[in-house]
Amino acid sequence: RSSYQRLFLAGTKGNTYHLACFACFSCKRQLSTGEEFALVDERVLCRVHYDLNQPKPAKRARTSFTADQLQVMKFSSI
User: Fold this and answer.
1) What confidence score (pLDDT) does residue 2 get?
2) For the chain, which domains are there?
3) Chain segment 3-60, per-residue pLDDT in tens
4) Its pTM surpasses 0.85
5) For residues 33 and 10, is the Cβ–Cβ distance under 8 A?
6) Torsion of CA 22, 23, 25, 28, to 10 degrees
7) Pair 45, 24: CB distance under 8 Å
8) pLDDT at res. 53
9) What is the rounded CA–CA span in Å between residue 22 and residue 50?
10) Neighbours of 44 (CB within 10 A)
């Protein structure tokens, strides 16, 4: 490879990036070829910042039972 070709190693979805510019939009860390990344709104994100921007799964609501409901369930299972 010529030195010119080595400058343009990173590419995604038909885009070619100058290797020095292939960096995470959030932390500005330069990414290596073969490293996992995401393209969100045309912005390159490293794996860490992509994961941080993903919505957290909703926690399951806890169910509270009254004493009467517990008695009904207790006798229903017999």
Assistant:
1) 43
2) 1-78 (2.10.110.10)
3) 444 455 556 667 777 777 889 999 999 988 778 888 888 888 999 999 888 887 777 7
4) no
5) yes
6) -150
7) yes
8) 82
9) 15
10) 21
Which tokens is 37 given? Answer: 């990344």
Please say whether the beta carbons of 40 and 53 come within 8 A: yes
Gap between the Cα atoms of 32 and 34, Å rounded: 6
SS3 3: helix
Cα dihedral 64→67→72→76 (10° resolution): 70
Pairing of strands 15-17, 10-12: antiparallel
CA dist., res. 9 & res. 7, Å (int)? 6
Banded model confidence at residue 1, pLDDT cuts 50, 70, 90: very low
